């Protein structure tokens, strides 16, 4: 065997670098091990070329003179990047891509860096579910060895889940199993759902969801043997396939409780558990039982008790026996309450809502109650929790309230113009955490041709750091009621209210509160004299008797109280608990108005699981006058003190669209000359009168949406409402019109004539001077002795065209509406849109299909 030839060794006689522009030759040599006078071989020169390429400074490297020892290293430098340009990117903005790529202006261009950046951009699009995205890099050469790097992006469509296949399921059909998953098959009606996009992390989550579902149905041996996501040949969609093994179904066997805490009786605890022997096995019930036992231990002061389920599976009998072991724990006490994260809100505002103080015995119920009260402040982000951590000793616990502040200011601004209202300006500003002290300060201004108001309000929830709330409101409201005849808006009565309200509240127990108030208001109720007055007096033929009876100035001095029960877990967006309020106000402590007004409000919220929130909200009221009768057909409660019902409380009906009202229909003639009533609602005079009694109830179900919709702040709900407004004195008819019979035997309603003081109808004729003169003569002209001379008919003076006046809506029968609405935390502020259909209404009610309102926060 011949030995391999030894490498030829030579000595570097001379060494130089050619082709460098920005880089010094010595710098290029520093990346190699070649030095003048050193020995070298062909392998040494090959390694030098590799080292120079590895520096990422050079696009080409060659070495000449290997046979002579006069080594010349010829290089071509990599260009410098002038700009990095992205084209075709619409779904991902340039700033987001720019943060991920490594190539930057004034850096050295290398093809390996370009390939790495292409992979990074494609990965960004894949995270957004765009697996068909492609990136084509291009280089544009410039002078001075510079280049522009262009990434041409073809984003492609968002990759959807076209199909979800499940293999191996026998007990439950594939549709029921797909309903348990967060990932959904792409369908046209799921355009708002983000669950139709492919997400690899969601694939693992769905496997866990399938396992949880089967475990709640008793299949304790269930497992997913494989989950495969395949990209379709067009690289647009995915097909996901799960292979499952269901296994047999188990029932609960013996269920026992074993406690190392001497205060607990295991047999009594086991008897109170919801799990019973013989029921189908349900892993969710096991988890809930563990939580309930832990909470029970917490109620007795054992903050860190551990409940461990011990399973005994009998595969022959298909039973699952469980022993809940409560480990030994010491009774714990609150060592310290730590509050962090509040930069604006003062510590005392949070601390006074905590129902446990340092040194108190730990109680999990009080911790939960403290958490709910802090959430109800509305100053912090949702899902706030008080964490429990071990203290300095085994019997000590630390309570940590790590809050994240939110915007507590609310700003509502709107401006507009209409042919009816002219300029409309509304501005309301509220700061619910004024100066970080939990105080509420608000101001509101409303201005239009028909409505003007200003209101200031201030509330101190803990006056002098005592658990007593006090507040004051100062207001002036100039309101004009109106109706429409066609497109013409007609002002009916104006009500200018000026006054103030002082209120205070004190807690009676943890859930009960007593609030009191004093209201002082001066009301000026009037009518437009140009439209509704005749000879300086209110004319019932123009205004209606009911409005003429309402005008006048009056002073209201009222004192009231409210008894409140509140166990809601949040006042802003409750999901559990209930609230009850009984209120009464007594007017007559001085002033001109005397009445007693009672009102009842009730609401209950239930978390139904799966993101569904059920609620019932009900209210009702009754007001009774304590004044003497003001005449026949005049209700004892004045029109501005009555209840009104409609939008926004009663969706499906317009503002003041429910309850007693007077409608005036005028007569006209048809094409044949027959007298008929105008029935077009736009041509009616419709005056809402309000009522002295009402009730209103609403059943509502809040619907869960996908994570994408939740991130947008969308919360849809469906609801059904019922209610009524009623119980006022029937007003007297405004007028009784004379009638006659035409040639066809039809009754004809005649205009109401103007009469003199003796009750004689008045007529008009034109005298010799061309002036219109009033007379009692139906024909001719009056003579000096009270007679009439002539046969020429005179024109009758008309006090009012004939109309039919109807009193409607004074019924306690329920009105019913159903609808769907959505709350949206839009960029413009909280927006509520409702689409409601009135199913049952009473004659005279004014329906409305769509309503919405909007505001903002700061």
From TrEMBL:
InterPro entries: Bac_surfAg_D15, BamA/TamA_POTRA, D15-like, OM_assembly_BamA, POTRA
Annotated GO biological process: Gram-negative-bacterium-type cell outer membrane assembly; protein insertion into membrane
Keywords annotated in UniProt: Cell outer membrane, Membrane, Repeat, Signal, Transmembrane, Transmembrane beta strand
Record domain POTRA: where: 10-78, 79-156, 159-247, 332-406
Gene3D superfamilies given in the database record: membrane protein fhac, membrane protein fhac: a member of the omp85/tpsb transporter family
GO cellular component: cell outer membrane
Subcellular location(s) of the protein: Cell outer membrane; Membrane
UniProt KW Signal keyword: yes
Chief site of localization: membrane
Similarity comment: family membership: Belongs to the BamA family.
NCBIfam families linked to this entry: OM_YaeT
HAMAP family linked: OM_assembly_BamA
UniProt function note: Part of the outer membrane protein assembly complex, which is involved in assembly and insertion of beta-barrel proteins into the outer membrane.
Subunit composition and interactions: Part of the Bam complex.
Descriptive protein name: Outer membrane protein assembly factor BamA
């Amino acid at each position: 065997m011949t030995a391999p030839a030894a490498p030829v060794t030579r000595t570097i006689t001379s060494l130089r670098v050619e082709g460098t522009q920005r880089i010094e030759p010595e710098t290029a040599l520093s990346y190699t091990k070649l030095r003048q006078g050193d020995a070298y071989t062909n392998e040494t020169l090959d390694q030098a070329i590799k080292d120079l390429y590895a520096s990422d400074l050079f696009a080409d490297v060659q070495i000449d003179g290997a046979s002579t020892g006069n080594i010349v290293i010829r290089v071509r430098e990599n260009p410098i990047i002038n700009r990095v340009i992205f084209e075709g990117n619409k779904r991902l903005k340039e700033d987001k891509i720019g943060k991920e790529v490594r190539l930057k202006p004034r850096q050295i261009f290398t093809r390996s860096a370009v390939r790495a950046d292409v992979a990074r951009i494609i990965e960004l699009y894949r995270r957004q579910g765009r697996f068909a995205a492609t990136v084509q890099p291009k280089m544009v050469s410039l002078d001075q060895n510079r280049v522009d790097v262009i990434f041409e992006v073809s984003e492609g469509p968002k990759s959807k889940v076209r199909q979800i296949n499940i293999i191996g399921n026998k007990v439950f059909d594939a549709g029921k199993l797909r309903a348990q998953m967060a990932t959904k098959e792409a369908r046209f009606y799921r355009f708002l759902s983000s669950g139709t996009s492919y997400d690899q992390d969601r694939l693992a989550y769905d496997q866990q969801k399938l396992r949880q579902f089967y475990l709640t149905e008793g299949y304790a041996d269930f497992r997913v043997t494989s989950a495969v996501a395949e990209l379709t040949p067009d690289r647009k969609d995915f097909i996901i396939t799960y292979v499952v093994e269901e296994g047999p179904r188990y029932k609960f066997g013996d269920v026992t409780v074993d406690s190392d805490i001497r205060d607990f009786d295991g047999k009594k605890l086991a008897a109170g558990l919801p799990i019973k022997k013989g029921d189908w096995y349900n892993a969710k019930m096991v988890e809930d039982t563990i939580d309930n036992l832990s909470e029970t231990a917490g109620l007795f002061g054992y903050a860190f008790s551990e409940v461990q389920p011990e399973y005994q599976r009998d595969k022959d009998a298909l039973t699952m026996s469980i022993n809940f072991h409560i480990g030994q724990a010491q009774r714990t006490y609150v060592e310290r309450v730590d509050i962090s994260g509040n930069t604006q809100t003062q510590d005392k505002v949070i601390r006074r809502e905590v129902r446990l103080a340092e040194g108190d015995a730990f109680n999990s119920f009080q911790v939960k109650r403290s958490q709910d009260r802090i959430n109800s402040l509305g100053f912090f982000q949702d899902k706030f929790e008080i964490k429990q951590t071990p203290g300095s000793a085994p019997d000590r616990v630390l309570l940590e309230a790590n809050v994240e502040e939110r915007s507590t200011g609310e700003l509502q601004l709107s401006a507009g113009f209409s042919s009816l209202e002219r300029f409309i300006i509304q501005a309301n500003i509220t700061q619910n955490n004024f100066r970080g002290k939990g105080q509420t300060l608000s101001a509101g201004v409303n201005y239009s041709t028909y409505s003007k108001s200003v209101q200031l309000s201030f509330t101190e929830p803990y006056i002098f750091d005592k658990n007593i709330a006090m507040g004051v409101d100062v207001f002036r409201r100039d309101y004009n009621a109106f109706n429409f005849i066609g497109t013409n808006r007609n002002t009916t009565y104006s009500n200018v209210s000026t006054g103030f309200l002082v209120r205070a509240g004190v807690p009676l127990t943890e859930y009960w509160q007593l609030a009191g108030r004093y209201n002082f208001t001066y009301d000026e109720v009037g009518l437009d004299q140009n439209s509704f007055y005749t000879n300086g007096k209110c004319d019932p033929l123009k205004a209606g008797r009911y409005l003429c009876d309402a005008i006048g100035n009056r002073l209201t001095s009222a004192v009231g109280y409210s008894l409140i029960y509140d166990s809601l877990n949040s006042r802003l967006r409750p999901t559990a608990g209930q609230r009850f309020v009984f209120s009464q106000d007594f007017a007559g402590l001085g002033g001109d108005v005397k009445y007693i007004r009672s009102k009842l409000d009730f609401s209950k919220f239930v978390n139904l699981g799966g993101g569904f929130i059920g609620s019932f909200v009900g209210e009702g009221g009754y007001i009774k006058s304590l004044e003497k009768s003001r005449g026949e057909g005049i209700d004892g409660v004045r029109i501005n003190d009555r209840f009104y019902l409609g939008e926004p409380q009663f969706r499906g009906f317009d503002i003041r669209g429910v309850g007693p009202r007077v409608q005036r229909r005028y007569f006209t003639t048809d094409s044949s000359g027959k007298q008929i009533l105008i029935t077009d609602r736009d041509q009616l005079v419709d005056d809402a009168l309000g009522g002295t009694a009402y009730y209103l109830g609403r059943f509502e179900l809040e619907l869960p949406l996908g994570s994408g919709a939740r991130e947008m702040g969308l919360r849809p709900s469906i609801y059904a409402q019922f209610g009524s407004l009623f119980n006022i004195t029937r007003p007297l008819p405004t007028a009784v019109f004379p009638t006659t019979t035409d040639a066809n035997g039809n009754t004809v309603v005649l205009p109401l004539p103007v009469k003199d003081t003796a009750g004689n109808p008045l007529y008009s004729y034109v005298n010799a001077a061309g002036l219109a003169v009033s007379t009692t003569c139906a024909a001719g002209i009056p003579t000096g002795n009270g007679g009439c001379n002539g046969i020429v008919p005179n024109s009758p003076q008309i006090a009012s065209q004939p109309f039919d006046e109807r009193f409607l809506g004074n019924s306690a029968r329920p009105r019913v509406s159903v609808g769907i609405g959505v709350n949206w935390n839009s960029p413009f502020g909280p927006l509520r849109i409702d689409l409601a259909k009135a199913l049952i209404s009473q004659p005279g009610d004014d329906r409305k299909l769509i309503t919405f309102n909007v505001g903002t926060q700061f």
